[in-house]
């Protein structure tokens, strides 16, 4: 699997920002078929940091519904895999560059 197809995008939420500030952990949306070793190598290559640990979570899809004029529309959101990366002390990942 190609290194750039493993990491889909970083997850930037209030909870993930708190993890980054407190523990040095970063959250990524990753390919469902990737494993922890592939994720570690992809992060180390892309961001030039030393990865201490990788935790993965498969988030299940959820049922969604909304009311419209023609009735209730039901659907489902897709499931996805999330990886929480811990980097070595003193290192950090800059997602925004010089914005």
Describe, in plain words, how this protein is organized in 3D:
- The chain is α+β, with helices and mostly antiparallel strands.
- The chain has a single domain, classed as Alpha-Beta Plaits.
- It has three helices and six strands.
- The strands form two sheets. Strands 1-2-6-3 form a four-stranded antiparallel sheet.
- β4 (63-68) and β5 form a beta hairpin.
- It is elongated.
- The two termini are 31 Å apart.
- The relative contact order is 0.24.
- The model has no long low-confidence stretch (mean pLDDT 91).
Mind sketching the topology for me?
Blueprint: H1 3-6, E1 7-10, H2 14-23, E2 25-30, H3 36-47, E3 51-59, E4 63-68, E5 71-76, E6 80-87
Antiparallel strand pairs: 1-2, 2-6, 3-6, 4-5
Structural descriptors:
alpha+beta, 99 residues, 3 helices, Alpha-Beta Plaits, 4-stranded antiparallel sheet
Largest sheet: 4 strands, antiparallel
Any idea how many domains? Answer: 1
Report the top-level CATH class: Alpha Beta
Individual helix count: 3
Strand order, biggest sheet? 1-2-6-3
Low-confidence parts, pLDDT < 50 over ≥5 residues? none
The percentage of residues in β strands lies in 35-45%
Assign the structural class, choosing from mainly alpha, mainly beta, alpha/beta, alpha+beta, or little secondary structure.
alpha+beta
How many E-type strands?
Answer: 6
Share of helical residues: 25-40%
CA-to-CA gap between the ends?
31 Å
Proper CATH architecture:
2-Layer Sandwich
Large-scale geometry: elongated
Mean pLDDT: 91
CATH topology: Alpha-Beta Plaits
Integer-rounded radius of gyration: 17 Å
Instruction: Give the H and E element order.
Output: HEHEHEEEE
Q: What name goes with the CATH superfamily? A: RRM (RNA recognition motif) domain
């Amino acid at each position: 699997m190609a290194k750039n197809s493993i990491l889909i995008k970083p997850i930037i939420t209030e909870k993930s920002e708190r993890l980054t500030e407190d523990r040095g952990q970063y959250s990524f949306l990753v390919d469902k078929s990737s494993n922890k070793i592939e994720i570690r190598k992809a992060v180390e290559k892309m961001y030039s940091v030393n990865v201490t640990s990788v935790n993965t979570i498969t988030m299940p899809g959820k049922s969604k519904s909304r009311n419209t004029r023609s009735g209730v529309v039901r659907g489902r959101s897709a499931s996805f895999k999330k990886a929480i990366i811990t980097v070595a002390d003193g290192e950090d990942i800059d997602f925004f560059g010089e914005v």
